[in-house]
Amino acid sequence: MSYSYSNAERAQILVEALPYIKKHSGKIVVIKYGGNAMINETLKQQVMEDIVLLWHVGVKIVLVHGGGPEINDLMKRLGKKAEFVDGLRVTDKETIDIVQMVLAGKVNNTLVNLLQMQGGNALGLSGADGHLIKCKIKDPRLGFVGEVTEVNEKPVLDLLEKGYIPVVSTVGCDDQGNAYNINGDTAAACIAGALKAETFILMTDVPGILRDKDDDKTLIPAVTVAETKRLKEEGVIAGGMLPKVKCCEDAIEKGVKNVIIMDGRVPHSILMELLTDEGAGTMVTGE
Ligand SMILES: Nc1ncnc2c1ncn2[C@@H]1O[C@H](COP(=O)(O)OP(=O)(O)O)[C@@H](O)[C@H]1O
Ligand SMILES: CC(=O)N[C@@H](CCC(=O)OP(=O)(O)O)C(=O)O
Known about the structure:
- By secondary structure, this protein is an alpha/beta fold.
- 41% of the residues lie in helices and 22% in strands.
- It contains 10 helices and 14 strands.
- It has helices spanning 7-16, 18-24, 41-56, 68-77, 93-117, 154-161, 184-195, 225-233, 241-253, 269-275, and strands spanning 28-33, 60-65, 84-85, 88-89, 122-126, 133-137, 146-151, 165-169, 171-173, 179-181, 199-204, 222-224, 258-263, 282-285.
- Strands 5-8-2-1-11-13-14-12 form an 8-stranded mixed sheet, with helices on both faces. A two-stranded antiparallel ribbon has the order 3-4. Strands 6-7 form a two-stranded antiparallel sheet.
- It starts with 6 loop residues before the first helix and ends with a strand.
- Bound molecules: adenosine-5'-diphosphate (ADP) and ligand 2.
- Adenosine-5'-diphosphate binds next to helix 9.
C-alpha cells in the first residue's frame, strides 16, 4: 500500500519515530512468529520488512518461529493424520522427522532468505545448534514433544554481537541426541527469558487479550501479571489464550520487561507497537 504524503509529512513521521528508535536501539527484542500470520505471503513480507527496519536502526532482533500449519500440510501430503492433545502435537518417530524437515529445514531457510532479500543479515539455527535448547520428554503419551530443561543463550548472544538476526526453529534435543518438537510459544518464551529480553512479542490471530473474546473492541491494552491471574480466575482468559498468557508470565518471571500479545494479521503491527505511541495488542508487564 502506498500513501500520498508530502515529503514534509514523511519527514515528520520519521522524526516522530526518533524517541522510540532511541528507546529500543541496542535492546534485545524476541519475536515469536507462527500460525496463520505466516501463511499469508503479503503479511509475511511485511513482518520481514518490519524486522529488517528495526535491525537497521540497531534493535537486536531474535526471530523465533513455529510453522504448525506447514507441518500439518506436509503430514497430509504424506498421508499422516495430525493429532493434538491440549494443543500439543502428538509426535511419533515419523512425525519428529517431519517436524525437523519443516521447521529446521524449509521454514527456517525461507525466513532467513526473506530477511536477506530485504537487506538484513540473518542466520538460521535450530534449538539443537550450540546446545541452545535442551529438553526432556514432556509426557510419554505425546511422544517426542519436548519440555525445555535448559537454554544456552550464548550462541544467540554471539550472533547478535556479530550483527546477525538469529532465526531460531523450535526443535530441541536431549543429551542422547534425540530431537524433540517444542511448542513455538513455549520455546520463544524460554529463549526470551534466558536472554532477559527488553521486549517479547507473541504474534497471534486475535488482537490481544480481549475482555469478551468474541468482540475485538474489548481489547485490554495493558495488564500486569497480577491482573492476568485475576482474569484467569474470572474465566475471561480461557482456551488457547491460557497457555499464551502462561508463556508471558514465565518470560516476565525470568526477567523480560514487557511482553506484547499482538495480532499478526495486522500489517506492520510490530512497527506500530515499537515505533509509534499507538501501540498494538496487549502489553503484559510485571507491575
Ligand atoms: N480473553 C481472551 N482474549 C482473546 N482470545 C481468547 C481469550 N480467551 C480465549 N481466547 C481464545 O484464544 C485463542 C488464541 O489462542 P490460539 O488460537 O491457540 O492462538 P495461536 O493459534 O496464535 O497459537 C483465540 O482464538 C480465542 O478463541
Ligand atoms: C509440540 C507442538 O505442538 N509443536 C508445534 C511446533 C510448531 C508451532 O508451535 O507452530 P505455530 O507457532 O505455528 O503454532 C507443532 O508441532 O505444531
